[in-house]
Design goal:
Order of helices and strands: EEEEEEEEEEEEEEEEEEEHEEEEEEHE
Oligomer: single chain
CATH class: Mainly Beta
Distance between the termini: 39 Å
Number of helices: 2
Low-confidence stretches: none
Structural class: mainly beta
CATH superfamily: TolB, C-terminal domain
């Protein structure tokens, strides 16, 4: 796998591409540009450009649901039906975000501040998990939440950048990271109840001498964990025991998250970012901000959808 070449699937100019996920039912890849509040929908092989929905807030991540998508916007989690009709159904407020009104002449414009949502996904039982990111990306003020019965329940506190959320195929482990620590943790997980045990350090990038920080992730059908190393210019694959199995370099320094897609789930799509590149860097890395892809031998797993609970 280390000899696999990553190519550009779609040439784009995303500021912070993230949260790719594949819908088997719709044969569609979805992802977001967090900073621009844009959701993309693309049918590979159609020859058509991706469709886009631009919302008024940053969108940290998305998840599948029966008739559309969940979107974790800065003020809270919403559901939008597809095709999008402009309406957003509010499901839960972000407990780390303060919404304020600001007068501009006769009109009041809504603004806010605090920790926005970042990485998230549904577990095998259809619960939606989502983490936040410290506004300054330095302090342990963020947390990991689970959407239960219409409310966000905090499951882990004192995080800096909640990331890398994934679940093992046998449903025994929840994987998660605080990117600032450069360590990937795993929690004992009970899929029936959603309960988690005490976290344990599973992979330490400092010990392995790997560059960058662990960002978004995906798990394949063999239970191996794929992590995008932001500022490391690669995606890496770890065995269920935490052994480094493969490193695949990408043509830009800031890959953000992988996702398995395509009819056989053997295409690994990778979102990327331009947000930390100056003009010289963007000239050097023209693929930055694009959607990348590589074909693998081992397929991924179908992405669960939100159950509505």
């Amino acid at each position: 796998m280390s000899n696999m070449r990553v190519g550009v699937a779609l040439a784009l100019d995303m500021s912070l591409g993230e949260s790719p996920l594949w819908s088997e039912a719709r044969q569609t890849l979805y992802w977001v540009d967090i900073n621009r509040g844009t959701i993309y929908a693309w049918h590979p092989g159609s020859g058509a450009p991706p469709e886009t929905i631009t919302l008024e807030e940053k969108v940290g991540c998305i998840a599948l649901c029966e008739d559309g998508l969940l979107a974790s916007m800065s003020p809270g989690i919403v559901r939008l039906r597809l095709p999008f009709d402009g309406r957003l159904e509010r499901l839960a407020a972000n407990p780390e975000w303060k919404q304020e009104g600001k007068k501009e002449g006769r009109e009041e414009r809504q603004e806010g501040q605090g920790n926005r949502f970042n990485d998230g996904r549904c577990d095998p039982a259809g619960r939606f998990w989502v983490g936040t990111i410290d506004a300054e990306e330095r302090h342990p003020t963020a947390a990991l939440y689970c959407l239960e019965s219409g409310e966000l329940v905090r499951r882990q506190a004192k995080l800096g950048i909640a990331n890398g959320l994934a679940f093992s195929p046998d449903q025994r482990w929840l994987y998660h990271t605080d990117s600032l620590t450069r360590r990937i943790l795993r929690y004992p997980f009970d899929a029936a109840s959603g309960a988690t045990g005490a976290p344990q350090t599973w992979v330490d990038l400092n010990v392995l001498g790997l560059p960058g920080v662990p960002d978004g992730a995906a798990v394949d059908s063999e239970g191996c964990y794929w992590s995008a190393l932001y500022d490391g210019g690669r995606v890496v694959r770890f065995s269920p025991q935490g052994e480094l199995l493969a490193e695949i370099e990408v043509p830009c320094p800031h890959p953000t998250m992988p996702a398995f897609g395509g009819r056989d789930l053997r295409t690994l799509y990778i979102t990327t970012a331009t947000q930390h590149l100056d003009g010289e860097g963007r000239a050097r890395w023209p693929a930055a901000g694009s959607l990348l892809s590589v074909t693998l031998d081992v397929p991924g797993l179908a992405e669960p959808a939100w159950s509505g609970g």
